[in-house]
Write a structure and sequence with these properties.
globular; 29% helix; alpha/beta; binds S-adenosylmethionine
Length: 210
């Protein structure tokens, strides 16, 4: 999945991953992060997710990283916010009250530019990346967020049935990528209703990384 793949998806509006409501697993489990009001939650590969709207509505501050300027322009339009936009190294920094989105490749984002984060929420980010990129992503994210606790939602299915994204991430891989830096708790694992687009069974696993 190179950058062009994602730019093209946004350009032709082929964004089946974009959910029409806040993620129910996030809503159910974010309390496990025990974040006080005003905490700053980093959402890597954020797209224009309604999860960001929900986090803001719950009184959190949010920071995000997203490759597509189309996505981020739509996000701010949907939020009814007019951002200030500044160059931040190789990225663009979109800023409004309680929200900072860095537009560009997350691998070009550094911890100083991102600023302090109290927690990470990863939905459809780790699972969006092919295996060859995931070790680098996990290492980079852990450093970027300075080991801030993380709520991670993973997709699991028989990888031989589809190439991905989303990719199937088994429990062993989560332990392999994050186990050296975090204590891991599998909060829940449940069947996805209707499987993957009705094509084959799939499960979602929610991890707490502390
Ligand atoms: C599967 S989508 C998930 C978006 C969002 N998390 C959601 O739940 O709707 C993956 C997103 O990651 C973005 N992306 C892919 N590679 C990226 C990278 N290297 N840096 C920043 N964003 C990236 C894509 O543009 C896309 O919007």
């Amino acid at each position: 999945m190179d950058r062009e793949f994602w730019h093209r998806k946004w350009a032709i509006n082929e964004i089946g991953f974009h959910a029409r409501a806040a993620n129910p697993l996030m809503v159910a489990h974010i309390g496990r992060l025990e974040l006080p009001p005003g905490s700053r939650v980093f959402v890597p590969l954020c797209g224009k997710s309604l999860d960001l709207h929900w986090l803001l509505s719950e009184g959190f501050r949010v920071a995000g990283a997203e490759l597509s300027q189309i996505a981020v322009d739509q996000l701010f339009a949907d939020l009814g916010l007019t951002p200030e936009v500044h160059q931040a190294g190789e990225l663009l920094h979109y800023r409004a009250r309680n929200i900072d989105i860095f537009v560009g490749d997350i691998f070009c984002l550094d911890g100083e530019t991102l600023g302090p984060v109290d927690a990470v929420y990863d939905r459809a980010a780790f699972v969006a990346l092919p295996q060859a990129m995931r070790a680098r992503y996990a290492t980079h994210l852990t450093q970027l967020a300075r080991r801030a606790p993380q709520l991670l939602i993973c997709y699991q299915y028989d990888q031989s049935l589809m190439d991905g994204p989303p990719f199937s991430i088994g429990d062993d891989e989560v332990r392999q990528r994050y186990g050296h830096a975090y204590a891991l708790t599998l909060l829940t694992k449940a069947d996805v209703a209707g499987g993957f687009k009705g094509r084959f069974p799939a499960m979602e696993a929610v991890w707490l990384l502390q």
